[in-house]
């Protein structure tokens, strides 16, 4: 199989592979730049950063790559508008947004000449995004990691979304290799978004303990958890998750008002930051459903090479 070209607004990457923008400093400049250099679209996860930090990450990515660099910003973040405007001021190439739906963002994107991509989980929302001016949509199924907007499989929602819109459709959720990429393309996707696979890259800056949990993961270790954001999340079972299931998790000592809506049962930002920095038993380790299929840590360039070889081997 030959990989198609994808056009998102005026952007045409060498390969239709987008690295998922994982929040709270999992997707930072080194990873995004490496993916852009490999011919994909590298994404900085902006949620959890303040505007100055986001500016620094975008500028560092630019220093490392002349490829396509974007940001992912959760609508659920209280600082959503500020982060979007910061990225646009820094002349980011593309903005991805999910965990809720903003209508205002399309106007901001038009003013700045920056394409906006909505992350959706239904044909209805995809059509609304197209009507408001989305340059593309990410069709994200329940197999994805992090916060989930549906319990339906990507194999079910992708054809539905493909029928409803004319703009490019990017498949996401559980894609960890070239065979998964080929399967999504056969279902009608114009490209794919992959996050979990890129955590196990040399360029991802999360702690070694975080990566070790990925490497040791079994299929039965991947479970759904309740997030204070108001959406379920997919994560690896650990001590913190066990506490969540028993209702004995530590309560927040203070609140930074980072979310528009929060149950207050625990601090999602602290939980994600703990894992990123190596305190994996005190935090959430978000991951995709098929994390157990990944058994090695590779440079991004080698990950791309393997994906391309696997896609090429599919008839």
Automatic annotation (TrEMBL):
<dbReference type="GO" id="GO:0018580">
    <property type="term" value="F:nitronate monooxygenase activity"/>
</dbReference>
<dbReference type="InterPro" id="IPR004136">
    <property type="entry name" value="NMO"/>
</dbReference>
<keyword id="KW-0288">FMN</keyword>
<keyword id="KW-0285">Flavoprotein</keyword>
<protein>
    <recommendedName>
        <fullName>Probable nitronate monooxygenase</fullName>
    </recommendedName>
</protein>
<dbReference type="Pfam" id="PF03060">
    <property type="entry name" value="NMO"/>
</dbReference>
<keyword id="KW-0560">Oxidoreductase</keyword>
<dbReference type="InterPro" id="IPR013785">
    <property type="entry name" value="Aldolase_TIM"/>
</dbReference>
<keyword id="KW-0223">Dioxygenase</keyword>
<dbReference type="GO" id="GO:0051213">
    <property type="term" value="F:dioxygenase activity"/>
</dbReference>
<comment type="function">
    <text>Nitronate monooxygenase that uses molecular oxygen to catalyze the oxidative denitrification of alkyl nitronates. Acts on propionate 3-nitronate (P3N), the presumed physiological substrate. Probably functions in the detoxification of P3N, a metabolic poison produced by plants and fungi as a defense mechanism.</text>
</comment>
